[in-house]
Amino acid sequence: MVFTGTVISTGRVVRELEGWGLVTALPGDRTVVWKPAGDRAAVLGVADPRSGRIAVFGRAASWQGRPECSQDRSMLACVVDGALSVWKLP
């Protein structure tokens, strides 16, 4: 799993983050990503594709496959295996 940030105007790849998967894009340059942490757990973060920095904001104890998520500027809500989890975004 590789998260790749691209510059839209040129299509040039600016950053590849190994081990991270895309959850959703946020307004501006922020992108929510996730990374497996054990068999069914995950770490969630907000990635800056230009710098490669990831601000970890949460962990999910039960996480597998692609979650169904919705977000606004301040919150992320995901349903995985019928359970809803909500996090405040950094």
Provide a brief overview of the structure.
The chain is an all-beta fold and 90 residues long. The chain has strands at residues 2-6, 13-18, 21-25, 31-36, 42-47, 54-60, 68-71, 75-80, 83-88.
Question: What's the arrangement of secondary structure elements?
Answer:
Elements lengths: L1 E5 L6 E6 L2 E5 L5 E6 L5 E6 L6 E7 L7 E4 L3 E6 L2 E6 L2
Task: Describe this protein with a few key phrases.
single chain; 90 residues; mainly beta; four-stranded antiparallel sheet; three-stranded antiparallel sheet; 0% helix; 57% strand
Return Rg in Å. Answer: 13 Å
Helix content: under 10%
Lateral arrangement of strands in the main beta sheet: 3-4-5-6
- Low-confidence spans: pLDDT under 50, at least 5 residues? none
DSSP summary, beta strand count:
9
**What kind of sheet is the major sheet?**
4 strands, antiparallel
Oligomer: single chain
Provide mean pLDDT, rounded. Answer: 79
Distance between the termini: 23 Å
Please state the structural category.
mainly beta
Number of helices: 0
Percentage of residues in DSSP E strands:
over 45%
Task: Spell out the helices and strands N to C.
Answer: EEEEEEEEE
Overall body shape: globular
